[in-house]
Amino acid sequence: MSAIPQQVFARQKASINTLVATQSALFAGFEKLIDLNLKVIKATMDEVALRSQQAADVKDPQEALAFSTGLVQPSAEKALAYGKHVYDIVAGVQGELVKLGEEHIADNQAQLSEAIDQMAKNAPTGTEGAVALIKSSLATATSAYDSMTKAAKQAAEVAESNLNAAANATFKAASDAADAANKVATPRSRRAAA
């Protein structure tokens, strides 16, 4: 059997393997999101039942104010945690897809380099300059791709850092607001009790 059909079959097999791995990564991420949402729904339903019982025990407006302000901070924390979990799942899937893409590109570059080497062996005398130019172009393209990949990874790290900083600032603001509301509600409760 000729080497060319074997190479074609090998490329097709590699493409199918990459497709299957991509689908597996996407499905695993989707499965994690479903699992997370089911857990959130169950926890929310349990919390609603508990909060409903607590709300039924509220006797005066000051207790109602304290009860309502006590709901703010846990809700903010839970929303932040949920967002972080979703982000982690999506980032994990994205990382897996990037890894698969990089492997696929590396395989293609290796195959292209091999094809250029085969072409160089079979090229007529006097075409060494053209072959060297093609090899140089391939090396330049590979270097440019590597530089862009590194820059994209750095940008993603900066974006993740900024997202974490913004999330922490939002959480701190929500916590501060809940604390301030609790401080306002606590003196009123004491005055009403007196």
TrEMBL record:
Q: Where is this region: Disordered?
A: 174-194
Q: Where along the chain is composition biased (Low complexity)?
A: 174-186
Where in this chain does the record put each Phasin domain? Answer: 7-104
InterPro entries on file: Phasin, Phasin_subfam-1
NCBIfam families attached to this UniProt entry: phasin
Q: What is this protein called?
A: Phasin (PHA-granule associated protein)
Could you tell me which species this protein originates from?
Bordetella genomosp. 8
